[in-house]
Design goal:
The complex is a heterodimer of chains A (128) and B (160). Chain A has 3 helices and no strands. Chain A has 128 residues and is an all-alpha fold. The N and C termini of chain A lie far apart (59 Å). A 3-stranded antiparallel β-sheet of chain B has the order 1-3-2. Classes of the chains: A mainly alpha (128), B mainly alpha (160).
């Protein structure tokens, strides 16, 4: 039983780390603030979620585990509101979302679409 | 008034869980803090169906596991988009109608949409939802309709 719990917690912690890393990579690779929000959403849903549940499993069923799950519940209640606030602020600030047909960010890019690397720095339309 | 009792109970349960000290002094502090919080809530008239939705708790036990599974699936989808050698994003903003009756139902639906990576609710006017999707084709699928229907069931306004 101990071994099962240990294996499950390791799997959850590694899975959470994978989503955190992928979300961070998405922050760099994706073309504009709106698409990057989706990568940010990954880190605080599955990234933080799997790590917190993994820690709770590792700890065993007691008060600490309950508190870890409470953190997760509060995080999942509040993070979509923060994401929505960012999106709303970007929209009312006059930022046009990147589209394949050619938003402001795509104008600096080649026709094959965003490729990562330097092209990913065009969120503010700053690169020429 | 019933909701005020519920709110007090929930607040005090959280106090006990976070403190787990049962000395008379700390219990009295907890009781006093929860009572003041509920009293202030009543005074500014925020203890209502929207802020203390205890009528949803039982149905939420069905909705939340489904939502977690949805969140997992869409996380995998967005991870695949990010990790693909060539980035295939096709973002756009789409509009569609939500079928929830109450503001609370719309709030839950909008937050559920934002919580699943790949879609973010950017605005709501009445029952018109404005949603930014990282891949346009994904939002036309049946999953948004499924979530819409499930939140409408969770909200339970039609049953009354």
């Amino acid at each position: 039983m101990d071994q099962v719990a240990a294996a499950a917690s390791w799997a959850l912690l590694l899975g959470g780390s994978f989503f955190l890393l992928t979300g961070s990579l998405g922050m760099v690779r994706l073309p504009d603030v709106f698409t990057r929000m989706h990568a940010g959403g990954m880190t605080d849903t599955m990234g933080a979620g799997m790590i917190l549940v993994g820690l709770a499993v590792y700890n065993g069923p007691d008060l600490i585990a309950v508190r870890l799950l409470l953190i997760l519940a509060f995080l999942w209640f509040t993070s979509p509101i923060a994401t929505h606030a960012v999106a709303k602020a970007a929209l009312s600030g006059g930022l046009d979302p990147y589209t394949l047909e050619g938003g402001p960010a795509a104008a600096a890019d080649d026709s094959t679409g965003p490729r990562g690397g330097d092209a990913a720095g065009t969120a503010g339309g700053a690169t020429s | 008034m019933n909701r005020a009792v519920w709110l007090w109970g929930i607040l005090f349960a959280i106090w006990v869980l976070l403190s787990w000290h049962f000395t008379p002094l700390l219990i009295v502090f907890g009781v006093a803090t929860c009572t003041i919080a509920v009293w202030v809530g009543l005074r500014i008239e925020t203890v209502d169906r929207e802020s203390v939705p205890v009528h949803l708790v039982l149905r939420a036990f069905l909705y939340v596991p489904w939502l977690v599974w949805e969140i997992f699936k869409s996380n995998v989808r967005v991870a695949r988009i990010i990790l693909a050698p060539r980035l295939r994003v096709d973002p756009s903003i789409v509009h569609f109608r939500a079928s929830q009756k109450s503001d609370l139902g719309r709030f839950i639906y909008a937050n559920s949409i934002t919580l699943t990576p790949g879609t973010v609710t950017t605005g709501i006017v009445g029952d018109d939802f404005e949603v930014h999707a990282i891949v346009q084709s994904e939002i036309d699928g049946s999953e948004e309709n499924d979530m819409n229907r499930r939140v409408a069931v969770l909200e339970g306004e039609a049953a009354q």
